[in-house]
Structure formats: structure tokens, C-alpha cells
Amino acid sequence: MRNLLGFLSRNSFFLFFLFLEGVAALLLFQNNRFQRSEFLNSSNAASGSFYQLVNNATMYFDLAEINEQLAAENADLRRQLTGSKIEIFGKNFIINDTVYQQAYNFTEATVINSTVSKANNYITLNKGSFAGVEAGMGVIGPQGIIGIVKTVSTRFSSVMTVLHTQSKVSAKLKDQRYLGSLVWDGKDYQYGQLIDIPKNANVMLGDTVISSGYSSIFPTGINLATVTSIEKPEGKNFYDITVKLINDFKKIEKVYVVKNVLREEQDKLEAEAQEGDNND
Amino acid sequence: MIRQILTFTLLFLFLIALQVLVLNNIQLGGYLNPYLYVLFVLLLPFDTPKWLLLIVAFALGFGVDLFSSTMGMHTMAIVFMAFLRPGVLKLIAPRDGYDASQKPGLQDFDFRWFLTYASILTFAHHFLLFFIEVFRFSDFFFTFSKVITSSGFTILLLLVSQLFNYNAQAKR
Question: In angstroms, rounded to a whole number, what is the distance separating the alpha carbons of residues A155 and A153?
Fold first, then answer.
């Protein structure tokens, strides 16, 4: 017993160090494995409102550019209005839309905190569960996909961006059937990788990569990136394709949270189908 | 004593704010992230009790983590650095040891001493931080190059911060 006490007092500094590192490691793993970050990360109320404050001040510097972006988008939307189209068949027609049903709803949100230089990047939005944002919803910007909502508090939400080593977005090349995934290797925030495109596909430099719509998170056909380099590695069936992301993740300010109205139905059906497998 | 505590409290808050609001937004080429808040642990007086050193470092790391949504990362790195500090100080001690009235900065020691002191500890901090962040050893050299370049940048900023201090001393 005396030896034990002696050991403890001789190494108290080292043991205290180990204790504090243990606490830090606990924080680290708690937070990273379960993403249970409502309390401690930037989507919690305290630091969330703090960033809102900072953002209110810094937002003015980017106003010119945001205005330009919004104006471009406005013009695009205005082009789609009935007012800017001529009526081919004159005034005598009735619209009774039984063909189309709304599948995606969009909620506008502002980015109040973001990173691009980490290996796993998150952004924080100023909309939370009060505005109908839920975990698992997609987030898109004026140009292309931003990421997927990871955690939500009442007034803020934290989004795992495409710039995350675990992010995987179902994607395909425009006008081609082959399905691949857009991933990020954690290096340059401007470039991602398109994987799982088989070698018999016909890929060209400058081809556009779009979302496939298979994941039930994002609508189909959103522009994601353009192909900048193509490699055919020996002994593999797939291309190594490097793509330049259309979004500049350093500049995003206004984004839209995407709610797939039919997702629940799709997920339920798919789960039921797989359950049938297990019972056999 | 009271004055010293007050100075260090202000420095503590200032460094966290500087780190979170300014330096976290600096990324040159995706490689350079300076972490100047290590300055706080470097500047603590020589006669700081060892246990206090660890607690203060823990609080500092926790503060930075809280606002960077990187729970635990900075805390682990800075506590490790504080743990190494007494050993490093002993290793590079001048022949007649340290005087309690001296401060571990450029005003009381020569350039070579401060550079060695700051470099070893900053490198240890950055090394642990960047490897906890990616949490894997594949791409070792890519991460290592980030450690090297960012350490260089941080050390440069540390030296600049010392010049501020130096001038203030000279004017008196």
C-alpha cells in the first residue's frame, strides 16, 4: 500500500496528464462517433447565436457578390414564369395537372459558419427544426450540391458537406447511364473524385457530372462538377476520374434545404422489400 | 501577483478570440493553418505549478474547441504540449538555471533559446493536432507536410508577437 501511494505521488504529474487526456479523448470520441453534437458543437444555442452575431457583421463584405448571384438566379427563375412565355395555342386551354405532383420542397437558409480546410468539413445554417429542417435532408446551393444535414437544434442545423471524407453522393455523367459516386479525398477543396464509373463508359474531359436522384435525398439532374482528368488504372475495371466541383465552398452564403415529400414512402417500400429477403 | 493573473486572463480571452475569429479563417493553399493560441502556454511564468499548467492548457483547448466544433482535438493537443513543457525547459536550460523573475520570452533570453523552445513545443502540438484530425496514418506524408508548413507559420507568428512585447519593453 505504501509503495502504491509512493508511486502515485511520484508520478502525480504524469497521471494527472493522462487523466486530462482521457477526458479530452472522451469528448473527442463521444462527439465524432455519434455526432451527438447538439450540446457541444457550433449548432448549440450559445455558440450558434454567437456566430449569427459575427455573421451579421461580416455578411456585408460579401453583399455585392451575393446580390449578383441572386440576380442571376432571379433571372433564371423569371425565365421560367408563364409571363415570359408566349401562348402557342392562344388563350383557349385548360390546365388540369394530374401528371405532376410536387416531390421536393425547398427552404431557404443562410450559412453562418463554414470550413473548407479540415479533413471533415461542416457548415452551420441559421434554420433548424422550427423551420422544418430535419437530419438527413439534402442541402443545395445556387450552383450544385452542398451536403446533407447531420444534426439539428431548434434554430440551427449542422451540415456535413461534400468536403467530408465520409461523404458519398450518388452521381452520374450527363447523358450517360452509368452510375457512380462523388467522393472527396480530403486534399483540395476545389476537386473531388468520381468513382465506380466502368471503363466501357465514354468519358470526355469537360463532361458534366450530375446528381442521379437515386438516393432520394437530392432531386435528379443537379449539376455537381466537371471532369478535369481521366485515368485508366491497369487491372481495375473502373476509371479514376478527378472532377472540379462547381460550388466554391469558400463563398457559399445562401443555400436551400431540400425536403423530399415522397421520401418516407420510398424508404418504407425499400425497407419492406429488404425485410422480405431476410425472412426467406 | 493579482496583476499577473489579470494579464494572463486577458491574454487567454484575447488568444481564443483571435484564433476563432481570425486565424481559423486563414488557409493558404489548404496547407497553412496557424494556431497562435499555443503562445499562452509558452508564456506562462517559470514558477507555474505543473498541475496548474495542465488545467490552464485544458481550459484553453476546450475554449478553442467549443467555437471550432472540433470537440476534444485542440484540448488533447494543447494538454500534451503543456505536459512536455517542463521537460523541454529542463532540456534547454541555461547553465545557471532559471530565475523566477525571468519571463520565457525574447526580452529575457536570446533568439536561439526562444526559437528552440517555441519550435519543439509548437511542432509537438501541431503534430498531434493534425493527426487526430485526420485520424489515420494513410497519406502520412501529406498530413506531415501540413504539420511542417503550419508549424513554420505559427512559429513565425510567435516571433512576431514577441517583437511586439520587445518594443513595449524597450520603450519603458
Answer: 6
Note whether B66 contacts A47, CB cutoff 8 Å: yes
A30 touches chain B (CB under 8 A): yes
CA-based nearest residue to A225, from A255, A199, A195: A195
Side chain identity, residue B132: I
pLDDT, tens only, A239-255 = 889 999 888 888 888 88
Residue with more model confidence, B135 or B126: B126
**Bigger pLDDT: B69 vs B15:** B15
The three three-digit cell numbers of residue B116, written as one number: 528552440
Do the beta carbons of residue A261 and residue A109 sit within 8 Å?
A: no
Other CB atoms within 10 A of residue A169 CB: 25
Single-letter amino acid, residue A62: D
User: Which chain A residues contact residue B133 at CB under 8 A?
Assistant: 118-120
| CA distance, residue A46 to nearest chain B CA (Å) | 10
User: Which residues are paired to A148 by β-bridges?
Assistant: A138, A160
Least confident range from B32-36, B42-46, B74-78, B166-170: namely B166-170
Instruction: Express each pLDDT in A125-151 by its tens digit.
Output: 888 888 888 888 889 888 788 899 988
The three grid cell numbers given for residue B28, joined into one nine-digit string: 493558404
Instruction: Spell out the alpha helix ranges (H) of chain B.
Output: 2-21, 39-43, 50-68, 73-91, 111-134, 140-171
Interface test with A, best of B20, B32, B70, B143 (most A CBs within 10 A): B70
